[in-house]
Amino acid sequence: MEILSDAAAYRTEPGADNSWVEHLRSDHLSVGTYCIRVGGTDDQEPHSEDEIYYVVAGQARFTSGGESVDVKAGSTLFVAAHEVHRFHDVTADLTVLVVFAPAEGSLAT
Question: How far is CA 86 from the centre of its chain?
Fold first, then answer.
């Protein structure tokens, strides 16, 4: 067992729009926290792995596969590998727990 005590904690560097902190990595998955400041930009690119987003805190819009939805604490989203997606219109500091399967970056794009 491993306790991920810092998972889901909001953090960004001063002046940064967003931050990513990885908490766990194995061959089969990785887990991290993605944070976006109010009005910040989500600059991520599509990943070669499937991912699940669980919104811990904050409020924003999320667009993926040509569909946009409002997200807030408790929202859970699945994004298939290679799908273009983005958080935007962040109106409250956003904290998202992210699970990649397999581990982020482990597959060629």
Answer: 9
Span 18-101: which CATH code? 2.60.120.10
Placement of tokens 């958080």 in the chain: 87
Q: Do 62 and 69 touch, CB atoms closer than 8 A?
A: yes
Query: How far, in whole angstroms, is CA 87 from its chain's centroid?
Result: 9
Q: Which residue has the tokens 């408790």?
A: 74
Q: Would you kindly state where each structural domain of the chain is located, as residue ranges?
A: 18-101
Q: CA 60, CA 41: separation in Å to the nearest integer? A: 11
SS3 assignment, position 51: strand
Q: Which residue positions in the chain have pLDDT lower than 50? A: none
